[in-house]
Design a protein that fits this description.
The structure is a single chain. By secondary structure, this protein is α+β, with helices and mostly antiparallel strands. The protein has helices spanning 27-30, 35-38, 43-46, 50-62; strands spanning 2-3, 10-11, 20-23, 67-70. It has a domain at 18-73. The protein has a two-stranded antiparallel sheet with strand order 1-2. It has a two-stranded parallel sheet with strand order 3-4. A hairpin with a 6-residue loop joins strand 1 (2-3) and strand 2.
């Protein structure tokens, strides 16, 4: 399989197994007022990766390669969280 990459296409080995893993691309981590902001992270800079992640998703879909996304969710009152996350 050949990946349309820059500066030149990349030819994957025949026995290559490839997948895209996207972890914690959630508003709570990258928007002002969310959990990431509460941790003191500079969340305004985190949004800059979104277009690159979208391009990767598009390329993987076009190549019929698997994409795995993880998210974390909690009860509204955070009763299912450890004290460190409340």
């Amino acid at each position: 399989m050949e990946i349309a990459a820059k500066p030149y296409p990349y030819l994957l080995p025949e026995d290559c197994r490839l997948a895209l893993l996207i972890i914690d691309m959630q508003r709570d981590f990258i928007e002002p007022g969310g959990f990431g902001d509460a941790l003191g992270n500079e969340v305004s800079r985190l949004r800059s990766i979104i277009p690159n992640v979208q391009r990767l998703q598009t390329a993987f879909r076009q190549a019929h390669l698997p994409i795995f996304q993880t998210v974390e969710g909690h009860q509204p009152d955070l009763s299912d969280c450890p004290p460190s996350k409340r």
